[in-house]
Design a protein that fits this description.
Keywords: Membrane, Signal, Transmembrane, Transmembrane helix. InterPro entries: Terpenoid_cyclase/PrenylTrfase. By secondary structure, the protein is an all-alpha fold. It has a single domain, classed as Glycosyltransferase. 43% of the residues lie in helices and 1% in strands. The protein contains 16 helices and two strands.
């Protein structure tokens, strides 16, 4: 779940904006509400509250740090009775209704709760809702019933896998999520060969999208945001061949990502006016996707670039960015507490509610003594969404950044 999937977020914003009633000119400006104390970050959670909260919990779990109970409780309390999640419900005690803008990406973020364990009722209801809104092509759109996109389909695959489901067996009209992803991958000829598109263009053509490709690689591999390091096939992706299986589609996507990374090891932004600038979020997504497939050499090179250059970006972007970098560190087997001299875990935890006392004390002791045998070893990863980043990508990409699908 990550700081990515900006395309999905922009789509959600457009839908929410269209659905919002116009305010009367004579109405006084509402008094800003205080943010929940259990929420990570201090920016408006209207469009990404559940997503970034989930990323924060997943990242701490990856680093072996126990998330605060208040933060976990806030997340579980956001669920609607039917199992779905909206980005933010200011009053969770009020029942969800037709005006509650639930979406697949926030709902799929329950893979954080699946990783933490002890929340089976919440995850089972969420999975049930996701299955109920699966499209006939086997995929999912950001909004239930919307056209399938690579990022949303991939993050839902991650949620299904985290909950113990077999994504390939979750079908509508005989189509699985993998069928949808195969239909969103570009052919091996022409520009963008082997990449994934976010969605088809209006004329039905497919345009390569780095964020969607990173998400698509993870989805095609049947992996969620929790990817253990060293579990890939250990081989760099070869030349693109016509994909008839999800595994081949993942290999094609990984090869495209490797080709798109610059000599320095990072992806370039595609936001109008920001071309030729590094894209930190999508680079982290690419690291995770390549590491998940076992393309260790390129993943390590790009992670090394992030380690040298991304600390300031994370500080400016907030908890979801810290979480994404922690997950990228885990995917490559690196230590997120020594990210070019920055302790990403400490920075992330400082952006949320107070940590459990026993964990805080142990962490402080480890920092003071610089004890290499600290109990908080790195054993986890990402990733967001998705959901096309603020956060899919994971795939999820800073969910607040503006990126064209």
């Amino acid at each position: 779940m990550n700081v990515r999937r900006s395309a999905a977020v922009l789509a959600a914003v457009a839908v929410l904006g269209a659905a919002a009633p116009a305010a009367a000119d004579s109405s006084p400006s509402p008094t800003p509400q205080a943010l929940p104390s259990a929420l990570y970050g201090d920016t408006d959670p209207q469009y990404d509250g559940v997503w970034r909260q989930s990323l924060a919990l997943l990242a701490q779990h990856a680093a072996g740090a126990e998330p605060p109970k208040a933060a976990v409780g806030w997340l579980t309390g956001q669920q609607c009775a039917d199992g779905s999640f909206a980005p933010f419900r200011a009053d969770p005690s009020a029942a969800c209704d037709a005006k509650t803008m639930v979406d697949t990406n926030q709902t799929a973020a329950v893979q954080a709760l699946a990783a933490l364990g002890g929340h089976d009722a919440v995850t089972e209801k969420a999975v049930g809702w996701l299955k109920s809104v699966q499209n006939k092509d086997g995929g999912w759109g950001y909004i239930a019933g919307g056209a399938s996109d690579t990022n949303s389909t991939s993050v839902v695959i991650g949620a299904l896998a985290a909950a113990g489901e077999k994504p390939g067996e979750v079908k509508n009209s005989g189509k699985s999520p993998y069928d949808a992803l195969l239909g969103l991958e570009l052919p091996c000829t022409g520009e963008g060969a082997g990449a994934f598109a976010f969605q088809p263009e209006k004329d039905g053509s497919l345009a390569a999208n780095a964020d969607a490709t990173a998400a698509g690689v993870l989805g095609a591999l049947g992996k969620g945001l929790l990817v253990e390091p060293g579990k890939g096939d250990g081989e760099a992706a070869g030349s693109c061949v016509k994909a008839t299986t999800p595994e081949q589609a993942a290999a094609n996507g990984a090869a495209h990502l490797s080709g798109e990374l610059t000599a320095e090891g990072h992806l370039l932004a595609v936001t109008p006016g920001g071309e030729e600038q590094p894209d930190f979020g999508n680079t982290a997504d690419a690291v995770i996707a390549l590491a998940a497939r076992g393309d260790a050499a390129q993943a390590d090179k790009s992670y090394a670039w992030l380690e040298k250059n991304a600390a300031d970006w994370a500080a400016q972007s907030g908890p979801a960015a810290y979480a994404q970098l922690i997950l990228a560190a885990h995917a490559t087997g690196a230590d997120p507490r020594d990210f070019g001299g920055t302790d990403l875990v400490k920075q992330l935890r400082a952006a949320g509610p107070a940590a459990p006392e026993k964990t805080t004390k142990a962490t402080e002791q480890a920092e003071d003594e610089k004890d290499e045998s600290s109990p908080f070893g790195v054993w986890w990863f990402v990733g967001v969404c998705l959901v096309a980043g603020i956060g899919i990508g994971f795939l999820i990409s800073n969910r607040t950044k503006k990126q064209q699908p």
